[in-house]
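Input structure tokens:
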């Protein structure tokens, strides 16, 4: 691998991180109460208790995809979408970078919506009834908390995420401990198995879209601070387990709550509904815990979104970048909170559509990394502004995967021509997009390698 020698890569002095830092970053970013909503979504697919737990486990383990992309960041010291230029070309990378940026902005909006609903519920506990004015104030207050994280350096981020892990991780466990006794175990165990193909697989697919695939575009953004000699296996394990433990535990709590709070899966404000299963003395602490768990997710989403703007060659002042993101993460929640008023429905559509693009990008990147970059590395000329404009193999693999995923997807916006049978009203398009892009990329990379070997053989023969 060529040694890094430009601003594309972090300097050696900045790369002293240890794997445990990645564990805390990803643990803190997944202790949010949104995991409970995931749990109720799983049961909503008509799964039994055992199937629901299995789906939660597989969905949480999908963070291994983030762990694998993190290896590239550890090896080079470059961020995720800069590394992506090797697979797509400098200009070809604009399209997936824009898509990944939109996904992070979307996640920011989801965090702000959830944070706003949580803050409103907390204010209700303190005697303030929800009004349009109070909703607007809560929206601006939580947005400001997230935007202030723009001031965090990597060292401050690691310390903050470590604190969040211990404090809000323990508080979340306390909330779960209070909820478990309210579970109607008899009703839970009486739920029959759902169909493994038409119910279980779509449930796993939608959870993967919101967990591993949802964050796959950010892996190297944080692993690039790792020491270059850090074990790749340690990086993968730290990222995967850091996310797995909180995700699986909190999703499991959501699964259990479906018997004690049956309206959770259809509520306009699921955060408020959860509080109904808690003792009154715990309600305020629960909402504070939920807020604390949401902030780290917003911090990572904003940090990666801003990094992606720079990869798009959009260089603006910090204040301008913050203003751009502020407008978007306020406008989208305003639509959901005041016009759509269907948080869970909009959330599932968002996961499905964004998941298709991210799944295709992740598969293309990982196959390129496994078949090419692990052997030849990321030469600086592949990532700089002088790089090849378009890498046809990568861009074509990504687009074909997206086309395949959308063709088998049915949403409130459109219906794909093949969204029938097991694909109707399911999120299997996400898994299909991942598989198709990965296979196409593997084939095209091998074709390119064969042509290269043929050219070299011809030169040698002459």
């Amino acid at each position: 691998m060529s040694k890094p020698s430009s601003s594309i890569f972090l300097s050696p002095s900045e790369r002293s991180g240890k794997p445990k830092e990645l564990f805390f970053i990803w643990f803190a970013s997944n202790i949010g109460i949104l995991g409970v909503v995931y749990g109720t979504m799983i049961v909503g697919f008509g799964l039994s208790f055992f199937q629901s737990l299995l789906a939660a486990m597989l969905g949480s383990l999908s963070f291994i995809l983030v762990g694998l992309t993190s290896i590239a960041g550890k090896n080079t010291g470059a961020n995720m979408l800069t590394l992506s230029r090797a697979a797509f070309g400098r200009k070809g990378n604009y399209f997936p970078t824009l898509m990944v940026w939109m996904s992070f902005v979307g996640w920011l909006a989801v965090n702000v919506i959830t944070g706003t609903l949580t803050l409103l519920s907390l204010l209700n506990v303190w005697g303030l009834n929800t009004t349009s004015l109070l909703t607007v104030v809560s929206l601006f207050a939580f947005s400001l908390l997230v935007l202030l994280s723009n001031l965090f350096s990597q060292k401050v981020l690691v310390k903050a995420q470590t604190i969040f892990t211990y404090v809000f991780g323990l508080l979340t466990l306390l909330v779960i401990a209070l909820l478990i006794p309210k579970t109607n175990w008899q009703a839970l165990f009486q739920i029959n198995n759902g169909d493994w193909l038409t119910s279980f697989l779509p449930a796993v697919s939608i959870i993967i879209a919101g967990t591993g695939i949802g964050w796959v575009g950010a892996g190297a953004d944080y692993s690039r601070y790792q020491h270059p000699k850090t074990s790749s296996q340690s990086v993968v394990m730290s990222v995967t387990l850091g996310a797995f433990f909180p995700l699986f535990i909190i999703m499991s709590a959501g699964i259990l709550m479906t018997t004690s709070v049956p309206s959770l899966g259809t509520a306009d404000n699921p955060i408020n509904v959860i509080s109904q299963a808690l003792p009154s003395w715990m309600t305020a602490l629960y909402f504070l815990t939920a807020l604390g768990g949401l902030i780290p997710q917003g911090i990572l989403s904003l940090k990666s979104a801003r990094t992606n703007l720079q990869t798009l060659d959009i260089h603006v002042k910090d204040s301008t970048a913050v203003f751009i993101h502020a407008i978007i993460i306020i406008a989208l929640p305003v639509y959901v909170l005041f016009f759509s008023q269907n948080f869970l429905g909009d959330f599932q559509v968002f996961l499905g559509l964004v998941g298709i693009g991210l799944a295709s990008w992740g598969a293309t990147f990982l196959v390129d990394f496994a078949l090419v970059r692990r052997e030849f590395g990321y030469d600086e000329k592949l990532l700089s502004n002088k790089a090849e404009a378009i890498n046809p193999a990568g861009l074509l693999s990504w687009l074909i995967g997206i086309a395949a995923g959308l063709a088998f997807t049915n949403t409130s916006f459109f219906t794909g021509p093949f969204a029938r049978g097991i694909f109707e009203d399911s999120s299997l398009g996400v898994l299909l997009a991942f598989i198709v892009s990965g296979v196409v990329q593997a084939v095209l990379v091998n074709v390119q390698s064969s042509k290269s070997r043929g050219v070299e053989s011809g030169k040698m023969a002459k």
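The chain has a mean pLDDT of 82. The domain at 16-342 is CATH 1.10.4160.10 (Hydantoin permease).
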